[in-house]
Amino acid sequence: MYFPQEQFYVTLRCPESINQWLLDLGLPQYISDFLRQGWDDVRFITDLTPNDLTMHLKITNDEHQERILQSVKDMKQSQHLPSGSTTAS
Question: For domain 14-78, which CATH number applies: 1.10.3380.30, 3.40.50.720, 1.10.150.50, 2.60.120.20?
């Protein structure tokens, strides 16, 4: 049996774009901030740090930071990264 939520979870673990990722996280208000700061490819978000969120992206809401960082962590752990991505061990 297929549940639509399963597909939603897969797109969070392997988004095709920054837009899709932030929309799926329910944080579309940050799309332009990410793009303006050069975070325009999902292959690079695995390097995102709490400092990047606060200092560069000006994301100060703790819940939003946690949602973003947890999603990045999930992507790293699942290794469902877009083609060309690598993670450091």
Answer: 1.10.150.50
